[in-house]
Automatic annotation (TrEMBL):
A biological process term (GO) from this entry: defense response to virus
Keywords: Antiviral defense
Domain of life: Bacteria
Lyase in keyword set: no
Protein name per UniProt: Type III-B CRISPR module RAMP protein Cmr1
Boundaries of every CRISPR type III-associated protein domain copy: 7-155
Organism expressing this protein natively: Tepiditoga spiralis
Phylogenetic lineage: Bacteria, Thermotogati, Thermotogota, Thermotogae, Petrotogales
Amino acid sequence: MQLLKLTLETTSPMFNGRDNNFVLLPQSIRGVMRYWFRACIPRTINIGRNYENLKKIEEDLFGSTERKSSFDVIVESNYQQSISKSIAGNVFSDFKYGIYGAESKRYLKEGTKINLTFVIKRNIDDLDYLLYYLMYLISNIGGIGMKSRNGFGSFLIIKKDEKYQKPSGFVDTLKKIDVIMQKYAEKLNLPLGGTIFNEIPDFPTLTKSNYKGYTSKQRFVNIQQLFKFLYKADIENPGAYIHLKKKYLRGAHTKRDSFVRSIKAIERSRPERIEYKQALLGLPINYRIMSGHHGNIRGGNYTLSGDERKASPVYISVHRILDEKKTIKYIYKIFIIKSKMSSNNNLKFKKKGEKITLNGYFNFDFKDIEKNLVKANLIKEVKKIEHKK
């Protein structure tokens, strides 16, 4: 029996578990690993028209209702003393925008160590290395638990066996995964060469031209300062993330304000097709206005939605570094990974209780998205992460 032992350390608060309690179970680790494994598969394997090849290798590694997984995960419950009460009244309460929906949940404090043991049950070449590189990939691009897209649940790997060499960077991590995946696919007789997407993929993929990443050069003395920069709830001077959503994507307080244009179109029964750039940060989006707030328009509840609930394709992760003086600082990384927001990227804008519906759209334009990230000061003075295959 082969074992892979890793020690993680959280770099930002982690929210996970049912109800309002925190618990980190093996299925949570497996779930996030499966998500990013799926994103890597099309880099080396032709997944097939109906994703049959993707399903085959994914189920071979992670299991299904018909077969067991190739590995088990053991999470050592040595973090109980690091579980904190909900954010109400503590230093994070000013940044509730970033954890909307999790405000009352207990969370794992930053700086907490988590011991993981992966028990490998099948003889798959370099499976231990694959699992290690997947965890390293996750530590670079995402996190564990709720709100991981917003920078919560970030972690770094602080302890491992010396034989597992740390990749030189994000692209190197992907290349190491590719090498192992190719051997794995050959064993399963799956077609190699990768997958060419002629349109936006249905799910996030780390294939060429389908993602871009940025690393901030701005450094923060602590994570409170970092989250304040991103999510500060201040009408006059909001956090950069809020500024992005309202001013630069929605166009609030400008003639192109997609929300105001939409409610006027509905109230005046003059449907028009509107671009909703704010869909980039997830769907549905609910709006509520009071009567008279926008001229003579009646108040009400409005919803912008696609075919189903859609998480944002923007991933923010928090990282701890040492500066030139060996002082601990914090930075964030932003990855944007293309995936369909809805069928044909069609969106619907409705008012509760009304029959009329506006048909809008979302255009996944990397150049336009990047321009708005710069305007919102989210990626000011950044170094773009190479996105080779």
